[in-house]
Amino acid sequence: MLILKIRELRESEKLSVRQLSEATGIRWNTLSDMEKNTAKHWPPEHLETLMKYFKLKQIDQLIEYEEELG
């Protein structure tokens, strides 16, 4: 399963979901769903916006793969 690391990135910057939303222009409920891994899809433009905002150079700084058990 692919998991976004939004929460850990956001918390490292001491930001709330709403603050990140205001800074990136991504709706707060969309960010919340992406962070909780309940979003049905991750629009590429949102991923790019987050990469730029957090100044990430590698996609694995934003997305990680976690093996599903069972």
In terms of DSSP E residues, the strand content is: 5-15%
Q: Which descriptor suits the 3D outline?
A: globular
Percent of residues in helices:
40-55%
Q: What is the number of beta strands?
A: 2
**Low-confidence sequence ranges:** none
Overall structural class, as computed from helix and strand content, comes to mainly alpha
Average pLDDT over all residues: 95
Radius of gyration: 12 Å
Helix/strand order: EHHHHE
Count of helix runs: 4
Q: Main sheet: which strands, in order across?
A: 1-2
Span between termini: 12 Å
Largest sheet: 2 strands, antiparallel
What does it look like?
This protein has 70 residues and is mainly alpha-helical. It has 4 helices and 2 strands, in the order βααααβ. It has helices spanning 6-12, 17-24, 28-35, 44-53, and strands spanning 2-4, 63-65. The protein has a two-stranded antiparallel sheet with strand order 1-2. Helix 2 (17-24) crosses helix 3 (28-35). The chain is globular, with a radius of gyration of 12 Å. The model has no long low-confidence stretch (mean pLDDT 95).
